[in-house]
Amino acid sequence: MGRIMGLDYGSVTVGVAVSDSLLLTAQPVEVIRRKKDNVIRKTLVRIEELISQYQVDRIVVGYPKNLNNSIGERAKKTEEFVELLRKRTGLEVILWDERLTTVAAEQVLSRTGLNYEEKAKVVDKLAAVLILQGYLDMLNFKKDSNDTDV
């Protein structure tokens, strides 16, 4: 089984994280930046390069639902992005509820002493790590709860 990639899809950035080979931890990789929200081709090409480099066989994308569980404009754009990813890569792409993930990333970064520009460079990468780590923790919890001690 290959690694899992986590993506935090934003209007002009995509934070990227990748699991370790044991699917236990998420590591930050990079932030892909684009000039406009609707110009996505180069972003998809870079994601495909990273899939190959890290031997990824599944992708988890943060799903930015509203706090009341409704689907807003950002979530609709994420759904469109996920469909493009599925078509381009042929991989399983999972939407993962990311409510409050960026808030959590910003809280973690607020304790680092980084200035605003430094935080802005890494917040999307950290959000991708938190999205992927949440998914990995769920997988490992399921695996552990299916193990039976005799």
Question: Quick one: CATH superfamily?
Answer: YqgF/RNase H-like domain
Stretches where pLDDT is under 50 for at least 5 consecutive residues are: none
Going across the major beta sheet, what is the strand order?
Answer: 3-2-1-4-5
Distance between the termini: 28 Å
| Overall form | globular
For the report, how would you describe the main beta sheet? Answer: 5 strands, mixed
Instruction: Specify Rg, calculated over alpha carbons.
Output: 15 Å
Question: What is the structural class?
Answer: alpha/beta
CATH fold-type name: Nucleotidyltransferase, domain 5
Topology, number of strands: 5
The level 1 CATH classification is Alpha Beta
Average pLDDT score:
88
List the main descriptive attributes of the protein structure presented here.
4 helices, 5 strands, alpha/beta, five-stranded mixed β-sheet, 150 residues, Nucleotidyltransferase, domain 5, single chain, globular
Description:
- The protein is an alpha/beta fold.
- The protein has one domain (3-146): YqgF/RNase H-like domain (Nucleotidyltransferase, domain 5, 2-Layer Sandwich).
- Helix content is 48%, strand content 24%.
- The radius of gyration is 15 Å and the shape is globular.
- The mean pLDDT is 88.
